[in-house]
Write a structure and sequence with these properties.
about 425 residues; alpha/beta; Rossmann fold; six-stranded mixed sheet; 19 strands
């Protein structure tokens, strides 16, 4: 059975010219026209820097997007994720046909509704009710079709009291509530949403995510969703596209896509040695080295879930003290703070010198995926003081195996949710 492709992006690229608008545009347009007249390629397509906002670059042209290719099947919910400036909003504007690509083409089947920014497509002088009919007309709906859905739209938006008030008097949250309700209830074949739900409160975000799930699962319609809320992306989307510097760096399952995004530019290192200048320190203590080790004291980046994992902390005492406690914070790759731990006995007297201590995580404790550690040093006696805290996180990776002595076992091959994966004791089944 063939795929039912409803949206297809082919070799999409978008180039922008930097600097003041209008500077040199006549000469550039004439140059383009002269090349086109002679049947030659646009000369400005051969130049331009990669879309990296953190570097200065050498060209007046920048590629916001480069060679984007993907297909979307009917009923799919696709998460488009990436850092700020990666090209997500530019891509959605092109898919929505708000902007034209420099090269490439978009092929779509059916109506597209877009929520690209607060107030898009709304006329500020018109009331909420009038804007519902205006947006519906833009989507190709008849007045009768819109009227049938009107009460549902108003009820879902929660703006009934203000529905006959001009939209210019709405808050940003009210505006996005109404805009989402219009886009969702007027049943476009493709719904494109760019981060605007973050403007709404928690109650509305929950309603909106539930509605999008209903749209895709029951209505068989397609959703393209951009958000920096990875929990929302994972709960809603079935597939992910990861953008970096205007290029697709990953396309696949949503779990793998989120992991790829969260690991972009992360300093994935299981050992850190600090110079005297960069070392986290106070006049009392200085951190010298941290590394992740196994039970044979070998430094590795990857550990099977059944292995014991240790964190070795090497530090230097600069002034004799009996008031020092070392602590550790552990996060997973979604920046969820899994645990904090510190030394049980904080009465040890440290003389000036170099020391080391090892903190052990038990085997069959952490779930699979990357984990990040941060180290802290504190004093408690007299008054609480932090010498340094959670700096320069280092990392290690837990790999789950399909074997008997893990919580997964040998039978289940799917994704297991949760941030820890201990083997718990289950009593024997008793017939009552």
């Amino acid at each position: 059975m063939g795929k039912d492709i409803i949206l297809k992006a082919e070799n999409i690229s978008k180039q922008y010219r930097l600097g003041q608008v209008g500077t040199g545009t006549i000469s550039h347009d004439l140059n383009r026209w002269w090349h086109k007249l002679r049947g030659k390629e646009d000369p400005y397509l051969k130049i331009g820097d990669t879309n990296d906002r953190s570097t200065k670059g050498e060209s007046d042209y920048v590629w916001a997007l480069q060679d984007i290719n993907f297909e979307v099947e009917r009923g799919e919910v696709i998460g488009i994720i990436g850092k700020n400036g990666a090209g997500k909003s530019t891509l959605l504007k092109i898919l929505s046909k708000v902007a034209a690509p420099t090269t490439g083409s978009i092929k779509s089947r059916g109506r597209i509704a877009s929520l690209l920014e607060v107030g898009t497509g709304f006329h500020p002088e018109l009331t909420g009710r009038e804007n519902i009919f205006l947006n519906g007309a833009i989507l190709g709906m008849t007045k009768k079709e819109i009227a049938v859905k009107l009460d549902e739209i108003i009820d879902f938006s929660g703006c009934e009291r203000y529905i006959d008030t001009p939209v210019k008097r709405y808050s940003s949250g009210m505006t996005v509530r109404l805009a989402f309700a219009v886009a969702a209830f007027l049943e476009p074949e493709i719904l494109i949403i760019d981060e605007v739900l973050a403007v709404g409160d928690a109650e509305f975000q929950k309603k909106a995510l539930g509605k999008m799930q209903d749209i895709s699962r029951q209505g068989g319609r397609t959703v393209l969703f951009v958000s920096h809320n990875m929990a929302a992306v994972k709960s809603l989307c079935t597939r992910g596209v990861v953008l970096e510097h205007g290029k697709v760096v990953f396309e696949g399952g949503i779990e793998e896509a989120v992991s790829e995004y969260l690991n972009l530019d992360n300093d994935i290192t299981s050992r850190k040695i600090y110079s005297e200048v960069e070392a986290p320190s106070s006049e009392v203590v200085r951190l010298l080295e941290t590394e992740v080790i196994n039970n044979r004291f070998e430094n590795k980046s990857d550990y099977f879930i059944f292995e014991k994992v240790g964190v070795r902390i090497k530090f230097e005492i600069l002034v004799e003290t009996s008031d020092l406690v070392l602590g550790l914070n552990l996060y997973n790759n979604e920046e969820i703070h899994i645990l904090s731990s510190h030394q049980k006995n904080n009465s040890e007297k440290y003389k000036v010198g170099v020391y080391q201590i090892i903190v052990w995580f038990p085997n069959n404790f952490l779930a699979e995926g990357y984990h990040f550690c941060g180290i802290a040093a504190m004093s408690y006696k007299g008054y609480f003081r932090v010498h340094f805290h959670d700096v320069n996180k280092f990392s290690f990776n837990i790999i789950d195996e399909f074997i008997e002595n893990t919580a997964r076992g040998i039978d289940y091959k799917g994704k297991i949710p949760g941030v820890v994966r201990p083997i718990l004791d289950w009593d024997n089944v008793i017939s009552l």
